[in-house]
Amino acid sequence: MASVRRASVADTVVRLLMVVLLCLCITCDGHYLNVSSRWLVKEADGQRIKLACVNWAGHLETMLPEGLNRQPLNRLAYHVNGMGFNCVRLTFATYMLTNATIYNRTVAQIFMDAKLEHTLRGIVIHNPELINLPIQDAYACVVQQLTHAGLLIILDNHVSKPQWCCANNDGNGFWGDMFFDTNAWVQGLCLVASMFKDNDQVVGISLRNELRGPKQNINDWYKYMALGANAVHKVNPNTLIILSGLHFDTDLRFLASNHLKNLSFQDKLVYEMHWYTSSYGVNFAKGNLNKACAIATSSVMKGGASMVIPTTNRSFTSPIIISEFGIDQRGGNKANNNFITCFFAFMASMDLDWAYWPLQGDYYIRHGNEGDEEYYGILNSRWNEPRNTNLLSRLQAIQQPWKSGNFPF
Ligand SMILES: *[C@@H]1O[C@H](CO)[C@@H](O)[C@H](O)[C@H]1NC(C)=O
Ligand SMILES: *[C@@H]1O[C@H](CO)[C@@H](O)[C@H](O)[C@H]1NC(C)=O
Ligand SMILES: *[C@@H]1O[C@H](CO)[C@@H](O)[C@H](O)[C@H]1NC(C)=O
Ligand SMILES: *[C@@H]1O[C@H](CO)[C@@H](O)[C@H](O)[C@H]1NC(C)=O
After folding, report:
1. Rounded distance, CA 218 to CA 325, Å?
2. 406 within a domain of the structure (yes/no)
3. Which of 104, 106, 110, 112 to mutate to test the pocket of ligand 2 (most atoms within 8 A of CB)?
4. Which residue in 54, 231, 316, 405 could disulfide with 359, CB within 3.0 to 4.6 Å?
5. Beta strands in 192-295 (DSSP E)
6. Which residue range is the domain that position 139 belongs to?
7. Does some domain include residue 407?
8. Which residues of the chain register pLDDT less than 70?
């Protein structure tokens, strides 16, 4: 009885927040973005926005964005903003929206089912208003707090079945894989697009993270991306549609000869790519760093980043978001250290939009370990301080756009 009552109070609070938010947005600047050649620009005035995002995982087994057992949600949201990021790429699993045995489970029920009582106690302490909300509503609260903190948000469909990502054979890699049902995928995308369609800080929806695995092929990529993109656009015509490439989002080469056609819209389409130390098969641990960097950079350009450069060989130019990159921040991995130096040089010269992987300092549960530490995380395992201030200041150096106003192309 008591818990039912709490849930309904929390429900009311959420609804009130939504109303406040809607009212605020009547007077606030439109945040929605358009694509203009290789740039993301504000729909309202055509000025460039450079996305400097951090990834925040919400797609693992519990489906609750990580860290809410460590810090209050609003403090985390403002902390992200305070570190200079202007945006969060918030991941989610399709099942959170489409699977009837999951979507009406409360946060408390999910954590109890997963035998994460200790972690749940942390959530009760720091974010008590979340625990009796259905998981979808708790996720919506996170989006709202990010919104309040002035951040832009990209919702990233990371997996279908909530779990750690990504492996070739994890059943979530390509349409038709064990858990990757096409209809549920479209349904989930439309639900999430509809949930946030009045929030103009939800500027992008990434249709699927890191396509991969034995089933991947170009024809299906075109077919299903057009299907998903048109469906999302119909529900939410203002948000950017962000598309990932094959082979763990390293390969968009096929677009050079054949752009994605058959879309009901033009100026909302963006591509994303990922770049980790070994993504493009370059050994950054030994040999000449300049040479390794030149080879890797060239692979990234051929893989798709060259879409930002106009050429007569291609009928279009497009923005590219490097939506995942990251390193072990303990500093002892030479390949990681060399890679990130190369990466920063590349990003400084190319002025691309980006999202660091990831924010989280640890996980509720990953690989079966409760409180598993994330050494790539921007925040430490207590989620109260940056893990590595040196890396953070290097990231801050690529947060500002080089170009704004009148663009050469
Ligand atoms: C829903 O989720 C449950 C629990 O993970 C799973 O056993 C079931 O197969 C899922 N159903 C569908 C239709 O995806
Ligand atoms: C969740 O939904 C299922 C199927 O619609 C229903 O049987 C169940 O009672 C619901 N659970 C709660 C807690 O609302
Ligand atoms: C184009 O998209 C529509 C709607 O998604 C679909 O019905 C149609 O089959 C597609 N045509 C081609 C040639 O892919
Ligand atoms: C354009 O195509 C020509 C001929 O196929 C090729 O030699 C050249 O390298 C291409 N340029 C770019 C920028 O891809």
Report:
1. 24
2. no
3. 104
4. 54
5. 202-206, 240-244, 269-274
6. 9-396
7. no
8. 1-29, 403-409
